[in-house]
UniProtKB/TrEMBL annotation:
Xref: Pfam families: Rieske
Protein name from the UniProt record: Nitrite reductase small subunit NirD
UniProt domain Rieske: residue ranges: 12-108
Keyword Transmembrane attributed: no
Keywords: 2Fe-2S, Iron, Iron-sulfur, Metal-binding, Nitrate assimilation, Oxidoreductase
CDD domains in alphabetical order: Rieske_NirD_small_Bacillus
Name of the gene encoding the protein in the UniProt record: nirD
Superkingdom of this protein's organism: Bacteria
């Protein structure tokens, strides 16, 4: 997994080849203790969120994607993949991560804490 540091606060981590990401199917990406669910949406955009549902830790990369949302596979809570917010009537949120597509590859932007920076 390649790592590129941009500015001081984000580390861009190579996550997948864009062409090899199935549409509307999650992929789990791990980097230094963070576990992220990466999705290529039908619109062509790529979204990344914390991989664990705030309700009872359902694995969001295994959820069903519809438009800009993923449905948790455990109890079907619907989470917006742009904001990370659980949709009403349920409540909660998951962390969102920046993504970029560059030279056919998908990168996830991980916040770089002082301890990770070494
Ligand atoms: S664990 Fe996700 S809805 Fe319950």
């Amino acid at each position: 997994m390649g790592v590129t540091q941009e500015r001081e606060s984000i580390v861009w981590v190579w996550a997948a080849l864009y062409a090899e990401l199935p549409v509307n199917t999650g992929k789990t990406v791990r980097y230094q203790g963070d576990e992220v669910a990466l999705f290529r949406l039908g619109s062509g955009s790529v979204k990344a969120v914390q991989n664990r549902c705030p309700h009872k830790d359902g694995v969001l990369a295994e959820g069903i994607v519809c438009d800009e949302h993923v449905f948790c596979p455990m109890h079907d809570r619907r989470i917006n993949l742009s904001s990370g917010l659980v949709q009403a009537p349920d409540t909660g949120c998951v962390r969102t991560y920046a993504t970029k597509i560059q030279d056919g590859a998908v990168y996830i932007g991980f916040p770089m804490s002082a301890e990770k920076a070494g």
